Amino acid sequence: MPDILEPVFRSDVTVQLVKHSADDAHVLWSARVSTQGEQSLDQIGADPERSKGLINYLMRDRHGSPFEAASMTFFVSAPIFVFREFMRHRTWSFNEESGRYRELGPVFYIPSPDRRLVQEGKPGHYQFVAGTTEQHQLVDEVMTDAYRHAYEAYQKMLAAGVAREVARSVLPVGLFSSAYATCNARSLMHFLGLRTTHPDAATPSYPQREIEMVAEQMEAAWAGLMPLTHAAFNANGRLAP
User: Fold this and answer.
1) Tell me, what's the pLDDT at 111?
2) Are 210 and 109 contacting, i.e. CB atoms less than 8 angstroms apart?
3) Could you tell me which residues are beta bridge partners of residue 9?
């Protein structure tokens, strides 16, 4: 049996903006075709700063389709359980790393020391609070041991000639995966409204911390591309139009 790769344990997620067709001007000329028709073509090179009131109006009154003119593709590296939540956002497009077609590497998620571990309260009305030092040590020890045993079992089956699509069944959802995730700005705002906590949110949301880490990085990239739209999103309760 070949040597088994040494597992890597991570507490972070990474998001990279790899492609985009997104700026505030996309929203403006997409909106103005409603009233100007072909004359809206004259707005394609216009300075969007002069029309930020229109963007705010569209956001406030929830005229959402102009925001769909802007698109972004991100490359995301995160645990499998994050992608299972992520893929509930069915207006996005995903292409994920395949455990059928490649051997999966031993990279696993371990919560960081500042990750709140303890859930208090009943379903629908609960909060997460900090864990004790002993609880964090237990999580680290149990997860590390489970990950090592699972990956050894995976490698043992592969070495015996078992197909990757069968052998992968023993791997846990804490294994890291990677995917391209593509969305328009309207879909991204809906995602952010559900998957972040923010003081400007009109409707509070309580996302799992790990998918919130993904959302925070996506929001930072999007805010740089479309600052006027991002400001209007915050000013209007962080509700997708």
Assistant:
1) 96
2) yes
3) 108
Q: Active site includes 195?
A: yes
What is the Cα–Cα distance from 218 to 233, expressed in whole angstroms? 14
Tell me the average pLDDT across 85-91: 93
Residue with tokens 């590390």: 144
pLDDT at 91 exceeding the cut of 90? yes
The 10 Å Cβ neighbour count of residue 77 is 18
Q: What SS3 state is found at 155?
A: helix
CA distance 71 to 148: 40
Write the CB contacts of 146 (distance below 8 Å, at least 6 apart in sequence): 172
Tens digit of each residue's pLDDT (9 = 90 or more) over 96-119: 999 999 999 999 999 999 999 988
pTM as predicted: 0.93
> Distance between CA 218 and CA 86 in Å, rounded?
13
User: What is the spatial distance between Cα 15 and Cα 213, in angstroms, rounded to a whole number?
Assistant: 9
Produce one character per residue of 179-188: b if its CB has 16 or more CB atoms within 10 Å, e if not.
Answer: bbbbbbbbbb
* The token pair that represents 238 in the structure block: 């962080």
User: What share of the chain in percent tops pLDDT 70?
Assistant: 98
Question: Which candidate in 168, 186, 195, 238 is catalytic?
Answer: 195
Q: Smallest Cα–Cα separation from 55: which of 29, 93, 94, 89?
A: 29
Give the pLDDT of residue 2: 56
